[in-house]
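Morning F.,

Quick status update on the modeling queue. The single chain you submitted on Monday has been processed. Sequence for confirmation:
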Amino acid sequence: MIRTTLSGDSVTNDKTKGSFNVPANTAEGVPFKNETNTEVQIHFEADGQWQSGPANPITGPEGLPGELLENLQFPDYTPFTLIANNKDWNTAYQVGIQNELSVPAGGTLWFLMNDQKNLYYDNTGSLTVNWSEK
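Structure tokens below.
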């Protein structure tokens, strides 16, 4: 069972599913913390729309495959897609619409959009991420 301290989620010892909101204008990300002593497998599923500045198209968690952009925060992944960043291990994962990820014991994944560095300030919208322990 996972415990998390996300706003909007109640904290219980037997939490096995929930949801959280990821605003498009956060460059740091929204934390998802595994407060247990064991690694857990979590299924993440995202929905919603956001826009990376007024000149760019509206997109969802899948981002804009095929777009080529310089200066992306996570250059190895699809522009504007939803990312889970494990800062402790310097590892990022593309979540997109859905993905299943291992969250290490005591570990935190930071959820954010894969935008260009220093350009999060003009983003609008948000994504809702539903999660469930596998």
